[in-house]
Amino acid sequence: xxxxxxxxxxxxxxxxxxxxxxxxxxxxxxxxxxxxxxxxxxxxxxxxxxxxxxxxxxxxxxxxxxxxxxxxxxxxxxxxxxxxxxxxxxxxxxxxxxxxxxxxxxxxxxxxxxxxxxxxxxxxxxxxxxxxxxxxxxxx
Amino acid sequence: xxxxxxxxxxxxxxxxxxxxxxxxxxxxxxxxxxxxxxxxxxxxxxxxxxxxxxxxxxxxxxxxxxxxxxxxxxxxxxxxxxxxxxxxxxxxxxxxxxxxxxxxxxxxxxxxxxxxxxxxxxxxxxxxxxxxxxxxxxxx
Lengths: 140, 140
Fold this sequence. Notes:
Chains A, B: InterPro entries: Pyridox_Oxase-rel, Split_barrel_FMN-bd. The structure is a homodimer. Chain A is α+β, with helices and mostly antiparallel strands. Chain A is built from 3 helices and 9 strands, in the order E-H-E-E-E-E-H-E-E-H-E-E. Helices cover 17% and strands 44% of the residues of chain A. In chain A, strands 1, 2, 3, 4, 5, 6, 7, 8 and 9 form a 9-stranded antiparallel sheet that branches. At the A-B interface, strand 2, strand 3, strand 6 and strand 7 of A face strand 2, strand 3, strand 6 and strand 7 of B.
């Protein structure tokens, strides 16, 4: 019988705890009217927004600055077929406030790539949804 | 110095070899004019298209059937900061041809969820791009 029992919805706090466990997520946006996605390492800010560091001239900055994007992270175990996924949806913007940049200089995201110059993109956590998949075949 | 040397572009065959290594990827699409993403297990067909199985009444089917979507898979090692990502972009459609369905009944994707009724979605691999991240800080 088909039910959604295999999935358990996660509340916001559970979502944020899962997000804090992984270093890499995926920015989902629109580029030239087509769906686009870029995996990138991230950190969570204290207000639960997602912080990324990238090159100021990057395609990512041009595509997402000022727009609503989704940010997805997940973890799956193919043996037990269990896992979780969390999606943050909200407006993305380059951080420009000097006090914010100063604050984030220590705790903010680093890039996994060497960047001579970089900007921080903040994705507001306006909507945070997630679900946990609990041994899908155990109920089959 | 910033270069893209940390990234190596993957050719189509390399992309497909990486894709074949992982059971789960992420469908990236548009839902109510917003970017949307759903992790799901998949298999590659012999023509390198991506095959997913889901419920016929799912939001995913309504959102992607007949539209161009992206499908992303990746693998990262946070210790060495190495990894890879592959993105397939192409038209998604529910498989309806009886001969195709018969052919895929054995080799096609299974769902990680119990489904009483299901459809197979095919994402054509019209554009396949990928990159490998080789010890990003080794060049810093």
